[in-house]
Write a structure and sequence with these properties.
Blueprint lengths: L1 E4 L5 H13 L3 E6 L4 E6 L16 E5 L19 E3 L2 E3 L5 E5 L6 H14 L3 E3 L17 H14 L3 E4 L6 H7 L2 E4 L7 H8 L5 E4 L6 H12 L6 E5 L17 H8 L4 E3 L1 H5 L5 H10 L4 E5 L17 H14 L11
Parallel strand pairs: 7-8, 7-14, 8-9, 9-10, 10-11, 11-12, 12-13, 13-14
Antiparallel strand pairs: 1-3, 1-4, 2-3, 5-6
The structure holds phosphoenolpyruvate (PEP) and manganese (II) ion.
């Protein structure tokens, strides 16, 4: 249920309504938009049966949200959410480029990659320290040592960092070192993990589960948000279909659908969908043209020697090409004011 307040509502009146709702054991989230303030009510709304909220003078309307996700819904927050990561603002016409290797392999490797992606104009640095590998015998990531390297190199180049967490036991540690926490496709419905990252104050990149419907994906976002962390960035990275000419099918149509249903920023990961570097640039552009707020791309100076996902990683020259193509395309769809 959401309570839409009249524009002139005073803070004390909002407080009064919030107290009334919380007294019966429900939770509230306040969304202060440019024109209107909305109170989202979470929990069993029948507990409010004896409270005539709609007749309170400052209440404009009470809307019963029939969608299974509430906080993630555009009904709750009509304006686009803009998420601030150390000054980098995702959404609102900006175009974020998150780039870096699949895995953190060494300090030298991270410095080399960070240098070329930063010079080309990337905003954030990615790199995995805990890797969700299909085989238990493949490289599993450097763990905490990798997190330290990522943090050090991120600071060196003035780039906020993004890294994946796979285990509830590691959430605190990852939140200590990284600026943004990533939930990978394989954990998109690991509800214990979603709740745990929801308890942190770090923005979350939530990849789409490779067999998740859009509604299920939004429910995953709701798990994070219902714990108090509203800073969720949705990342389309390709889904499993019958097509096997590439790794996964990048669902660009999900972007305008999400933009209609949710206020959360949406980014696109063309690397994991393509599986090879050749398709990464056209898919990144397709994502931006379709309304995405940014891209996450894997890059490596020596992909043949990469510990994971070398085949889909862009080398410096191709990464530069991606950036110059983005600079050309983004203004056409009113994006990328921030691109240097
Ligand atoms: C990654 O970003 O390196 C990764 C493993 O992504 P996904 O979860 O989308 O496969
Ligand atoms: Mn990868």
């Amino acid at each position: 249920m959401i309570i839409v307040l009249k524009p002139s509502t005073e803070p004390e009146q909002i407080q009064h309504i919030v107290e009334m709702i919380e007294k019966v054991g429900l939770r509230t989230h306040i969304s202060a938009g440019e024109l209107q303030t909305i109170i989202g009510v979470i929990g069993d709304k029948t507990k409010l049966a004896n409270y005539p909220i709609a007749s309170i003078s400052c209440v404009e309307s009470v809307v019963h949200v029939s969608k299974p996700y509430k906080l993630a819904s555009r009904d709750f927050h009509p304006d686009d959410t803009i998420i601030d990561v150390n000054g980098a603002k995702i959404g609102g016409g900006n175009l974020w480029v998150i780039a870096g290797p699949c895995s953190i392999e060494s300090e030298d490797q991270m410095r080399t990659v960070a240098k070329f992606v930063k010079e080309a104009g990337a905003n954030l640095l990615r790199g995995g320290a805990y890797k969700p590998r299909t085989s238990p015998y493949s490289f599993q990531g450097m763990g905490e040592e990798g997190l330290k390297i990522l943090q050090k190199i991120g600071k060196e180049f003035g780039m906020p960092t993004v890294t994946e967490v796979m285990d509830t036991a590691d959430v605190e540690l990852v939140a200590k070192y990284a600026d943004v926490i990533q939930i990978g496709t394989r954990n998109a419905q690991n509800f214990a993990l979603l709740k745990q990252v929801g308890k942190t104050k770090r923005p979350v990149v939530l990849k789409r589960g490779m067999a998740q419907t859009i509604e299920e994906w939004l429910m995953s976002a709701e798990y994070v948000m219902s714990e108090g962390n509203l800073d969720v960035i949705l990342c389309e990275r390709g889904i499993r279909t019958f097509e096997n000419a590439y790794r996964n099918t990048l669902d660009v149509l999900a972007i305008p659908v999400l933009k209609e249903r949710t206020h959360l920023p949406v980014i696109i990961d063309p690397s994991h969908a393509s599986g090879v570097w050749q398709y990464v640039i056209p898919m990144a552009l397709a994502g931006i043209v379709s309304g995405a707020d940014g891209v996450m791309v894997e890059a490596h100076h020596d992909p043949e020697k990469a510990m994971s996902d070398g085949a889909q990683s862009l080398k410096p020259k191709k990464f530069n090409l991606l950036m110059s193509e983005l600079r050309k395309i983004a203004p056409v769809v009113g994006k990328g004011k921030n691109l240097s």
